[in-house]
Write a sequence for this structure.
């Protein structure tokens, strides 16, 4: 799982967790700690929605990918002007992020996309080189 974030963003943290419901809480707490260490206040208007986006993406991995992916990996990265969150699992299905807004029953992905686009951010699904997994990358302006 490589990303431009590794090369150009000065702050980066990677966390791998069991694909279990408790992963949501641990990932959120880790995000809060990382953001605080990086000088991004938890009251920043992007932080609350970013934590909700993170929760939804991890919940989706736990619910839908755990059968093939016993772990979920979360990447947090930031610079002065942006925050990047990525959730990676080893399930091959690549959800149509932008289609979640148009179709009924988009659920958590619709929420992710509404929040991301509402904040002026971007979302992309990146397949693993072997096609057996993917990462969903969210970039939000700060």
């Amino acid at each position: 799982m490589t990303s431009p974030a590794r090369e150009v963003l000065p702050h980066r943290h990677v966390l791998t967790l069991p694909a279990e419901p408790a992963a949501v809480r641990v990932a959120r707490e880790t995000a809060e700690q990382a953001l605080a260490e990086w000088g991004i206040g938890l009251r920043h208007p992007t932080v609350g929605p970013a934590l909700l986006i993170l929760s939804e993406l991890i919940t989706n991995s736990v619910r839908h990918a755990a059968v093939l992916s016993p772990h979920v990996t979360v990447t947090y990265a930031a610079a002065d002007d942006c925050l990047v969150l990525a959730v990676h699992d080893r399930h091959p299905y690549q959800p149509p992020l932008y289609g979640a807004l148009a179709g009924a029953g988009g659920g958590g992905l619709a929420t992710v996309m509404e929040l991301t686009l509402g904040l002026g951010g971007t979302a992309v699904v990146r397949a693993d080189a072997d096609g057996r997994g993917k990462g969903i990358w969210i970039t939000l302006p700060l």
The two ends are 24 Å apart (CA to CA). The chain has one domain: 4-9+20-141. The chain has a mean pLDDT of 91.
